[in-house]
Every structure is written in C-alpha cells, then in structure tokens.
Amino acid sequence: MISTDIAIIGAGPCGLFTVFEAGLLKLKCHLIDALPQVGGQLSEIYPKKPIYDIPGYPSILAGELVDNLMEQIAPFNPTFSLAQRAESIEKTDDDQYIITTNKGEKIKAPVIAIAGGLGSFEPRKPPIEGLSKYEDKGLYYMIRDPEQFRDQKILIAGGGDSALDWTIELADIAAELTLIHRRSSFRGALDSVEKVKSLSESGKISMITEAQAVGVLGNEKLEAVNVKMKNGESLNIKVDSFIPLFGLTPKLGPIADWGLNIERSAIEVDTYDYSTNVKGVYAIGDINTYPGKLKLILCGFHEATLMVQSAFKLIYPDQKLSFKYTTVTGVSGFNN
Fold first, then answer.
1. Domain spans of the chain?
2. What is the pLDDT of residues 105-125, one digit of tens each?
3. Long-range pairs for 182-185 at CB < 8 Å and ≥24 separation?
4. Do domains 2-121+248-334 and 125-244 have the same CATH topology?
5. What is the pLDDT of residues 10-47, one digit of tens each?
6. DSSP letters of 45-96?
7. pLDDT tens for residues 302-314?
8. What CATH architecture does domain 2-121+248-334 belong to?
9. Quick check: 103 pLDDT over 50?
C-alpha cells in the first residue's frame, strides 16, 4: 500500500500544480490517472496546441506547459499510478481514505484532491450516416500534431474555442482550409472570432456560416463532405481531412458513486477551500462547479493553491501554518 499526504486523482495541469503548492508546505503527493502519461487533455488531445492565457507566457504549447510543470514539481518527488482509474474509496478507522484502482493498487491518504478535468471523455460526433468508417482515414476528432495536416485541404466544423483556435493554428499549415458553422455567430473568445474573420476577409481561409455537414463521400478514405446551407443549397467540399470539433462529452465514471454532491456531471464545492460535502475530499479544476465557475487552467491553479492550504490544516490541526512567499525564500528551501 502507498501512503501519502494528498492523493491526487488526475495528473493534468491542476493536479500537477497541486504537487508544487503542497510541496511548499512539505506535504507529499501521489497522483493517479487513467491515461498512460501525465498532462491530461494537454498531452492526450492537443500537445501541439498553443495556449494563450497562462500568465507570463504570451503563447505556450500545451505539451511544453506540461514539461514545465513537471520540472517545477521535480524537487518534491511526487509518485504516480498511471494508466489506472481510481475505482473506489473507503474511510479507515484512523480517519484516512484508501483509494483502490482498477488494477488493485491501494493508496492511503488523509486528503483526496479530485483534479480529473472533465473526467473520462469522448468527442461529440455529428450524426452523419457512415461517418465512423472514415475515422483516422481522413476524419479526426482531435488534433495531436498539426504537422499531420500540412499542405492538406482541411474542413473544420464547429463554432467554439477549439474550432476557432485550430482554424487559426492550421491556417498557415493547410493548402486550403474551410471553416463551417451552423450559426452566424460563434461561441468562442472574441479575440479568436476576430482573428478568424480577419483570415476569412484576407482570403487565407474560407468561412461558411449557417451551414452544416450532412454527408461524407469516399472509397478507402474520406474524399469529400456534403455541406447543406440554411437556404437549402448544398455543395460537396473536397477534403484530405475533415475535423468536426464539437467538444467533449464528460463522464465522471466511478467518482459519481462516491457520495459527492453532483450537478450536471460536475462536483459541487465550497469556494472557501474547494472542499466537497465529504470531509477530506476536495475537487479542483474543470471537474468542479460553483457559482461563477470558469473552466480555465489559471482558475484551476488558484483553486489548487487554496485547497492545499485547507488540506494542511486538516492534516495538521495543531500546527500553525506559516505561509511564505517563494520570491523571498526560494523553492529549494522547501525540499523534502
């Protein structure tokens, strides 16, 4: 059995940053993640996608952010159970928890921090007949390496941040790029919307609104997508790759059966310290919900910071917590 101070479920950016904040308070962490590598969605879905809202970085690749987080927490020697799903928890007589994974590994800790992002997830797929036979044969729901699409004719469908961001990113890589969206307005960040409109006006990309993909054509691989307009007209767009980006469907998995208060597949928390209704169990990042919640990495970092302060008081109720600035003391002085 593995014993630690904080058992972190989820090794995405929020889970990794929790290790740093806990390390400053000399708390040990063990991370559990169903994926075979750290980084969560950043590593699994879009490692080459630039992120623009990390303080101090005008732009940073998702994979690079993960590498930086791992370098930042290295002095605190976290341990990991990767490619394992947290299956169940039980309370012990000494007021701790034992997490059992789907592979039978057991982790004991007085505090559990659920940082599972969206939980387990799968892409939302458009209801187009015969679509599945083209998966990985010209049809892609996720982009891991933009270079895969260099000099291709690309059709992106969607109106959210992911569709807009990838349109901007692939505009300089594709031979031809078309963005279609079923509405005339977009749901993404205003800056991204303006950039996409500018690309369209300059002729760098084609943008078709009030239209949606209704059919796919091709033999061994996808060759064209049938697009229907709001006015009833339709056209076949020849493509090398069709990328529908309609978001992810989150599923909490076994966590949903742990007695936590759940609202729309998210865990309700108290914003004082991001604690759940179960003492000693916290939830941070995209997996939690509260009034005014924003699903941003930097918000998850803030939640992790306050959560760790509360966890220390729970683990050591008789010790006075003396918060110190790393700008004054440096991180090396906190090494375990």
1. 2-121+248-334, 125-244
2. 999 999 999 998 765 556 789
3. 182/209, 182/210, 182/211, 182/212, 183/159, 183/209, 183/210, 184/209, 184/210, 185/159
4. yes
5. 999 999 999 999 999 999 999 999 887 898 878 766 67
6. T-TT-EE--BTTBSSEEHHHHHHHHHHHHGGG--EEEES--EEEEEE-TTS-
7. 999 999 999 999 9
8. 3-Layer(bba) Sandwich (3.50)
9. yes
List b or e across 291-326, with b for residues whose CB sees 16 or more CB atoms inside 10 angstroms. Answer: eeeeeebebbbebbbbbbebbbeebeeeeeeeeeee
What amino acid occupies position 189? A
Q: Give the rounded percent of residues in the chain with a pLDDT score beyond 70.
A: 91
pTM of the model: 0.68
In this prediction, residue 22 carries a pLDDT of 97
pLDDT of residue 331: 57
Long-range contacts of 160-164 (CB under 8 A, 24+ apart): 160/186, 160/187, 160/188, 160/245, 160/246, 160/247, 161/187, 161/188, 161/189, 161/192, 162/245, 162/247, 163/188, 163/245, 164/188, 164/189, 164/192, 164/193, 164/195, 164/196
Secondary structure letter of residue 243 according to DSSP: E
Query: Helical H runs in the chain?
Result: 13-24, 41-44, 62-73, 161-170, 190-201, 297-315, 326-329
Residue 279 tokens read as 């003492």
- The answer to whether the CB of 214 falls within 8 A of the CB of 130 is no
Q: pLDDT tens digits, residue range 114-160?
A: 998 765 556 789 999 999 999 999 999 888 788 999 999 999 999 98
Task: CATH number for 125-244: choose from 3.40.190.10, 3.40.630.30, 3.50.50.60, 3.20.20.70.
Answer: 3.50.50.60
Dihedral over alpha carbons 184, 189, 194, 199 (to 10 degrees): -90
Q: Average pLDDT in the 300-327 region?
A: 87
